[in-house]
Amino acid sequence: MKHNNVQRVVIIGAGAVGCSYAYSLLHHGTAGEIVLIDVHQEKAAGEAMDLNHGVPFAPAPVSIWSGDFTDCREADLIVMTAGLAQKPGETRLDLLTKNTEIFEQIVRQVMENGFDGIFLVATNPVDLLTYVTWKASGLSRERVIGSGTVLDSARLRYILGDYFDVDARNIHAAVIGEHGDTELPVWSHATVGMQNIKTLLEEKAVDENKPLDTIFENVRDAAYHIIQRKGATHFGIGMSLLRITKAILNDEQSVMTVSAYLDGEYGQHDMYIGVPAVLGRGGVREIIEIELNPREQEQFTYSANVLKKMMKQAAR
């Protein structure tokens, strides 16, 4: 039974991403209750035990346990980190087909237990699986959100901060589009502090395209480099999910590039894709339509079309 005024986060998938996120929640005292659900129940139980041993050092009281789908009834937020990882030689379409089947089964069980909160999806391909979650749940589109390009935008800010020797928290730049190879940086709105990034490069007498192209390539390919070295990425996405969670549970009205449903915005319909959106206790309050330059608009349209094509292929 949920305690009054305690916010419950249910994490479905107790793998590296789910547990990195759970640890971040514990460390920041963001939720009063954290529930881990996994098909491997013993692993979820072990992870919950391990996390509980850090509770005495947490900034706020928190209850952590391994549970089942009945725990979803009282959840404020369900975070989907379950699913299969892409194997060598396997296409993204293969991965989508397998994870779609898994997600439809999970979401059906969640909804059968009376869930009435917000879904946050992190499993890849995240834009497409967020759409699958929305369709399967029957919830309003505002209450089904994907992690989108929040992590990509964080990577961009970090690398720009390193390049300009400025605190990454004072870099305002975003990546939008598919969370994948067709994503794009919005250089036309990027600032370092309060100075436009291209103006700053001109003042330094630097060919703006060379450093920016290299920086974005490092952002876009970051996951490949990390996976090559350590096998998986999970700390960065864990912190990204924490940031989204805080915006929702604390009703912050913060702007982040989550995967949100478009119904005419940016010229796109009936799809989820990474765009700036205002997040609060009800989920996505509104989509922010920033003015893209012609090249950016062309890139965004291409990214959207890639996602649409993939969804159509998976539906066959």
Describe this structure in words.
The protein is built from ten helices and 14 strands. With 316 residues, it is an alpha/beta fold. The protein has a six-stranded parallel beta sheet, sandwiched between helices. It has a three-stranded antiparallel beta sheet with strand order 7-10-11. A three-stranded antiparallel beta sheet has the order 12-13-14. Helix 1 (16-28) crosses helix 9, helix 3 (92-112) runs parallel beside helix 4 and helix 5 crosses helix 7. The longest helix has 22 residues, at 294-315. It starts with 7 loop residues before the first strand and ends with a helix.
TL;DR of this structure?
With 316 residues, the chain is an alpha/beta fold. It has helices at 16-28, 41-52, 92-112, 126-137, 150-164, 197-203, 209-220, 222-230, 235-249, 294-315, and strands spanning 8-12, 33-37, 63-66, 77-80, 118-121, 144-146, 171-172, 175-176, 184-185, 191-192, 195-196, 254-263, 269-280, 283-287.
Task: Give structural attributes.
Rossmann fold, 10 helices, 20% strand, 316 residues, alpha/beta, six-stranded parallel sheet
How are the strands of the biggest sheet laid out side by side? Answer: 3-2-1-4-5-6
CATH class of the largest domain: Alpha Beta
Gap from first CA to last CA:
42 Å
Indicate the mean pLDDT: 93
CATH architecture of the largest domain: Alpha-Beta Complex
- Number of separate strands: 14
**Looking at CATH, which topology of the largest domain would you report?**
L-2-Hydroxyisocaproate Dehydrogenase, Chain A, domain 2
Number of domains: 2
* Helix percent band: 40-55%
Tell me the radius of gyration: 19 Å
Please report which band the strand proportion falls in: under 5%, 5-15%, 15-25%, 25-35%, 35-45% or over 45%: 15-25%
Order of helices and strands: EHEHEEHEHEHEEEEEHHHHEEEH
Name the CATH homologous superfamily of the largest domain.
Lactate dehydrogenase/glycoside hydrolase, family 4, C-terminal
Largest sheet: 6 strands, parallel
In terms of structural class, how would the helical and strand content be classed? Answer: alpha/beta
Silhouette: globular
Query: Spans of 5+ residues with little confidence (pLDDT < 50)?
Result: none
Number of helices: 10
